[in-house]
Structure formats: structure tokens, C-alpha cells
Write a sequence for this structure.
């Protein structure tokens, strides 16, 4: 049986139960998704765009799906202690399949801003869902359609015209369940004209005993001159898999920064699909992956320049140790009308062991002459000269290697536009390389004493 | 006769199977400055690399005693801890590693080697400040990534700054004068002289007499085809400056 069929069967068998617990707008989407899935299958390893990662295999195990949306008993507060302050955020959680706002998320939020669960917004502000949900994530993509078919909850961020959020938003996704679990979640982000926001997302898994799978679809709509940063830190477990598909559309003058950091996970695949649909946009797409054990990280980017005078910059870096594997497939498309485009793509990888593997495929498709574009990919080992230089100063080989690996990630961290987060990330990356177990308490990104209400 | 600091006996080394050092003998005592000169390709930089423990080279024969320690059996980092310092001909740029972190790791690993506690942040910064003055190293450089974007002169000053921080017993300056203008040369040489004591020693590897005007050698050795073929006092350097290496080459090649 194909992986997809088991979910379609699950849906058709439990359609009534699913629909009865879900707002009408989401159910309408499910019906469309079911129709779209007819004759489709999930991508398999080796197919174009999926050369090293099988989505079919990722979804094949029989994960539990919380069809009846029962409360899964979780003691989040007990195990979720982030005690290093320094950053103050408006914070929310998605625990397994359910969204919770923390008490901090409601204080001093500017008028008209919505940060709430997909379920609530679909029920209470349906015009937002009608206008945006599923508008740029195409249902003819089988994985998007599967997410739409089974979507459980997620976050909606709506920042109205001209509103600039002074504090970053934060979303903590937590897996914690007594059984293996698949979660189907969604992020819908609308930053209207001249509005500004930053969102920090942290994925955590609270145990190393159960297998988890996250299906995630992110849609980002940016109005004219809007600015939005998305920082997505994955720090889950070797038993956790994730397929995240991000779609963004930028209007004129907007400035988008997406930085995805895969620190700990089992198998991760991130798709970035960015449509630049207005003049004078800026796009920064950055990512890092630190692999150890049998971890697998695959990033795939597609930045489409459809307007003039826009700049995009992609920077993806991997450090792979042990038997970990990485893949990067990135493309830049410059459409015929997108004159004076500046688009760059850079993928650099360090193999820290002899059995780690990296697969990289940079692509550039240009349909006009008035452009400045470049792409590059390198895969290699640590700089032996630098290593000897450091050892000659008395730094042990092990320490020197760790320092060089950390240093390798410095420019990915430098893209971050939140100063406090840069410091935290350096700390996190250092800890990650030193192999220390990462507990929430060590992460210290900002969570304070926030907890779901 | 004072104690011997470094004793090199019949040292042979090769790279990729090609023999570069063909039996080096060298004895250095505390307080001495030795200059090693010689034509291009004679093995000067190889000698410094081999002494510092660069894994690119393989020692095939010979031994090196460093104040009673079998130097060749030590890792590069332990050679550093034991007091050997190599000032690189081409200091390596290490983007993303700050000078402060780099130096702190170096100092504290050395302290750990001798069972001393790590320096506190304030002690360390104070030490950095003091030692920076030896070579007039700009504070801005000290806060940047190691050698990244440094000019040639700044890189060499940075080498001597690191030497000041680590207080080695034997320093090998590998063509420290290359790429330096006359002012930078004076500062760098001045730094080396300030660090000189009766207990430490220096090996100066250079092509030119010029540097030896500033750092006065007690002995001058000529390295040619992987061997020290002549040893003399400072006057040998002057003679080489005047006559070049050809006369020595001819003498050796005709033997």
C-alpha cells in the first residue's frame, strides 16, 4: 500500500469524525484536497527534486493520528523550562496537534494583530482564512494536499497595514505523546503593507522513545514594503521526522528573511518556494544543518524572480559528522521581465567524517540579460592549514576542529536580524558541536517561564 | 657551557616520498639567537614545519631533544605547551574564530597542561592588553577573526603578539620579514628583542641580512640541499649579502 493511500483511507473512514471537530472552512479545504489527491502519490527517492529523500518512506510508517482530537496528557510546564532570559517574545505553543497561547502572548499586542490558532481564526475571522489559506500552497502538490486533507491546527499571524511589532513572536512546537504520533499543522502568515514582524519557531521533541512525524505547510503573504523574519530552529530527536513546505509571496518593496536551522532531528526535508512578485524586493534565505548519527537533512529552495530590481541571497551550510547525510537542491529562476535582478546562491558543506555524505545541486535558470547572478557549491573537509595553525598554538586537535566547525556556521548566524537571538544561536551551535545534550533549559532562547495556559 | 635547549641530530624528513631534510644537526642554548639562511628550496621552512610537528612531513631518521623532552614524539599542541613557538611565514586566516577565543583557548590549554587553573575573563583580557603593546597591535585587530583581512604587516605583528602571549622557550621565526615594509620590520623586530631573555632562544629563518640588522644573531647557518653546510658568526650573513649563495653552492656541489 502506498503511504498516501493509508491516509486517504483513514480520512474517508473517519470523515464524519474529522469534520464534526473542525471549522467549515477547513473542511471545505479537505474536500478539495481529497479530490486533488486522486491518482497522486508522494514523491519517492530518486525522483526529480527528491534525489536523496523519500517522502513516501517518511510517511509510510503507521503513525497514530489524533483523529478525534483528544487531549493528549502532557505536562509541558514540568519539562519546558527555559531559564536564560535576554529575549522577550510574544509566545505561543503547538503541543502535538493543538495550539495554545501563553499568557505573554496577549499582553500589549497592538490593536488588530492576530496571533491565534488556525481553528479559532477559521471559526471567528473566516474572511482571513478565505482570503489566504491555500492560496499559494498548491493542492496539485500531493504533499500539500495531504496536509490540507488532515490539517489539525496551526498558527495564524496577521499583522495589519502599517503595524510594526516591537517584540518578536515565538512559536514552540512540541512533540510529547505516549504513542508514536503524526501531527499535521499549518502556518499562515500575513504581513500587510508597511507592516513588520519577526517569528521565531522552535521544534522540540520531549522524549527519545517515540517516533514522531510532522507534516507542515507554511504560507507567507507579504504586502508592499512589508518586512518579515522567520527563524525556524529544529531541535527534536533522532526519532522525529519532518516535512515542511514553505510558500511565500512578496509584493513590491518587501523584505523577507527565512533562516532554517536543523540542529537535531531524524529525517528533515524543508522546501522553500518564494515568489517575488513586485519590484525592489529583498529576500534572504539561509539555512544550516548540523548532522550526526544517522541524521538526514534535505533542503530544497526555489526562488522565483518575477519583477525587476529585486535582490535575493541564499546561503546554506552543512556540517555532517558520523554517518549523517545531507542534500541541497536550490534553484533561482529569473523570469523574462525580471530585469536588474541580483540573485545569489551559495551552498557550502563540511564533511567531518569519512562516512558522511552530501549531495548538492545548485541551479540557475535565467530568461533575461540584465541580471547579476551567481551560484556555487563546495563540499570538503576542515582546512588542514588552519587546523595545524591552531594546534601549533597549543589548541588540541579536537578543540580546534570544534572551533572551526562553529566558525563555519558564523555567517549563517550573522544573517539573523535579532541581536539576542544571534548570541543564543552561537551558544546553541557551540553546545551542539560539543555534543552536550540539549535540554530546553540550555537552549535559553527566550521562553522564560511561559507555558501554555 | 650552559644547558642545551634544543639538540637536533641527523634529522631527515620527506614530503610525498621526496626527501627534503637530509641530516640536520643543530645545537641551541638558552639566550642564543640563530639565523638560518639559504637559497630557495633548501629546506628552511621544512625544518621549521618539522620542528613544529606539521603532519604533512614525515620524519624518517634522526632525533630532536628539547630541554630533555623527545620533541618528535609530541603532538603539535604539546610541543607548543613545552615551549616551542613557530611564527608562520604565511599566517592562516580563520574566519569566524575571534582572536580572543583563539588566544584564550591556546592559553588555557597550556595552563591545563601544567595543571594550572584557567585564567578568568578579566585576567585574560588584562594579559591581552599588556602583550598587545609589545608589537603595538591595534585593539581592533584583537577583536576580529584570526588574521582575517589583516595586512601582511598586521599578520606578522599578530604572530609576535601570540609569541608574547605564549612566552615560548624557543621561537622559530619563519621569514617573518617577508612582506614587511621597513617600519613594520622595525616594530616586529623590536617586539622579538623585547621578548628575549637569558632563558629563551630564537631561530630566525630569513633570506636577507636586513632582518639581522635588527635581530642580532649569535650564529648564522647556511642550509643547502637539506643540510647545514656552513656555520659562522654574524659576519657570515654579511658575506652572503655581498657575495650571494653561488660560491657556497659551487663549493658544496663540487665536493
Amino acid at each position: 500500500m502506498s503511504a498516501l493511500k493509508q491516509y486517504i483511507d483513514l480520512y474517508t473512514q473517519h470523515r464524519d469524525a474529522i469534520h464534526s471537530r473542525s471549522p467549515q472552512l477547513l473542511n471545505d479545504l479537505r474536500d478539495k484536497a481529497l479530490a486533488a489527491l486522486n491518482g497522486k502519490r508522494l514523491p519517492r527517492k530518486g525522483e526529480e527534486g527528491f534525489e536523496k529523500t523519500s517522502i513516501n518512506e517518511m510517511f509510510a510508517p503507521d503513525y497514530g493520528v489524533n483523529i478525534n482530537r483528544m487531549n493528549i496528557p502532557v505536562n509541558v510546564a514540568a519539562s519546558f523550562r527555559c531559564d536564560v532570559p535576554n529575549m522577550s517574545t510574544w509566545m505561543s505553543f503547538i503541543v502535538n496537534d493543538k495550539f495554545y497561547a501563553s499568557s505573554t502572548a496577549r499582553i500589549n499586542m497592538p490593536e488588530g494583530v492576530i496571533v491565534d490558532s488556525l481553528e479559532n481564526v477559521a471559526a471567528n475571522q473566516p474572511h482571513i482564512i478565505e482570503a489566504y489559506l491555500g492560496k499559494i500552497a498548491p493542492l496539485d502538490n500531493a504533499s500539500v494536499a495531504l496536509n490540507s486533507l488532515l490539517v489539525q491546527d496551526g498558527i495564524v499571524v496577521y499583522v495589519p497595514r502599517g503595524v510594526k511589532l516591537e517584540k518578536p513572536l515565538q512559536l514552540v512546537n512540541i512533540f510529547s505523546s505516549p504513542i508514536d504520533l503524526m501531527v499535521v499543522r499549518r502556518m499562515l502568515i500575513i504581513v500587510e503593507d508597511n507592516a513588520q514582524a519577526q517569528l521565531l519557531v522552535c521544534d522540540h521533541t520531549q522524549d527519545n522513545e517515540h517516533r514522531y512525524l510532522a507534516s507542515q505547510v507554511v504560507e507567507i503573504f507579504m504586502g508592499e514594503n512589508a518586512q518579515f523574519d522567520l527563524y525556524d530552529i529544529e531541535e527534536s530527536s533522532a526519532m522525529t521526522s519532518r516535512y515542511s513546505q514553505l510558500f511565500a509571496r512578496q509584493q513590491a518593496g518587501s523584505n523577507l528573511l527565512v533562516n532554517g536551522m536543523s540542529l537535531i532531528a531524524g529525517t528533515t526535508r524543508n522546501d522553500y518556494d518564494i515568489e517575488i512578485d513586485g519590484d525592489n524586493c529583498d529576500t534572504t534565505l539561509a539555512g544550516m544543518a548540523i548532522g550526526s548519527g544517522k541524521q538526514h537533512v534535505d533542503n530544497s529552495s526555489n526562488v522565483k524572480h518575477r519583477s525587476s530590481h529585486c535582490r535575493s541571497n541564499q546561503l546554506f551550510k552543512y556540517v555532517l559528522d558520523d554517518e549523517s547525510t545531507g542534500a541541497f537542491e536550490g534553484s533561482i529562476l529569473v523570469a523574462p521581465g525580471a530585469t536588474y535582478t541580483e540573485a545569489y546562491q551559495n551552498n557550502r558543506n563540511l564533511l567531518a567524517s569519512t562516512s558522511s555524505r552530501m549531495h548538492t545541486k545548485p541551479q540557475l535558470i535565467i530568461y533575461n540579460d540584465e541580471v547579476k547572478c551567481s551560484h556555487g557549491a563546495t563540499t570538503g573537509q576542515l582546512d588542514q592549514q588552519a587546523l595545524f595553525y591552531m594546534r601549533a598554538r597549543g589548541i588540541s586537535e579536537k578543540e580546534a576542529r570544534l572551533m572551526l566547525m562553529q566558525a563555519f556556521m558564523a555567517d549563517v548566524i550573522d544573517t539573523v536580524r535579532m541581536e539576542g537571538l544571534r548570541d543564543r544561536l552561537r551558544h546553541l551551535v557551540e553546545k551542539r558541536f560539543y555534543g552536550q545534550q540539549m535540554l530546553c533549559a540550555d537552549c535559553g532562547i527566550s521562553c522564560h517561564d511561559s507555558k501554555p495556559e | 657551557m650552559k644547558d642545551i635547549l634544543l639538540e637536533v641530530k641527523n634529522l631527515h624528513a620527506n614530503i610525498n616520498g621526496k626527501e627534503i631534510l637530509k641530516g640536520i644537526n643543530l645545537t641551541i642554548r638558552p639566550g642564543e639567537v640563530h639565523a638560518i639562511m639559504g637559497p630557495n628550496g633548501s629546506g628552511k621552512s621544512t625544518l621549521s614545519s618539522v620542528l613544529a610537528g606539521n603532519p604533512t612531513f614525515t620524519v624518517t631518521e634522526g632525533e630532536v631533544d628539547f630541554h630533555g623532552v623527545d620533541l618528535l614524539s609530541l603532538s603539535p599542541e604539546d610541543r607548543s605547551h613545552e615551549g616551542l613557538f613557530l611564527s608562520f611565514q604565511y599566517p592562516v586566516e580563520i574566519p569566524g574564530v575571534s582572536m580572543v577565543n583563539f588566544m584564550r583557548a591556546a592559553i588555557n590549554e597550556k595552563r591545563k597542561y601544567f595543571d594550572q587553573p584557567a585564567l578568568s575573563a578579566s585576567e585574560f583580557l588584562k594579559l591581552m592588553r599588556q602583550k598587545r603593546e609589545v608589537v603595538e597591535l591595534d585593539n581592533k585587530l584583537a577583536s576580529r577573526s584570526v588574521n582575517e583581512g589583516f595586512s601582511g604587516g598586521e599578520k606578522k605583528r599578530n604572530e609576535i603578539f601570540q609569541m608574547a602571549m605564549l612566552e615560548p622557550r624557543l621561537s622559530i621565526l619563519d621569514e617573518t620579514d617577508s612582506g614587511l615594509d621597513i617600519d613594520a620590520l622595525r616594530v616586529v623586530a623590536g617586539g622579538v628583542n623585547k621578548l628575549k631573555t637569558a632563558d629563551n632562544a630564537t631561530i630566525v629563518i630569513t633570506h636577507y641580512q636586513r632582518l639581522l640588522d635588527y635581530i642580532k644573531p649569535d650564529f648564522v647557518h647556511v642550509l643547502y640541499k637539506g643540510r647545514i653546510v656552513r656555520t659562522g658568526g654574524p659576519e657570515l650573513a654579511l658575506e652572503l649579502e655581498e657575495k650571494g649563495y653561488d660560491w657556497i653552492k659551487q663549493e658544496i656541489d663540487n665536493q
About this structure: Chain A touches chain B at residues 383-386, 388-397, 399, 403-404, 406-411 (CB under 8 Å). Chain A has a mean pLDDT of 91.
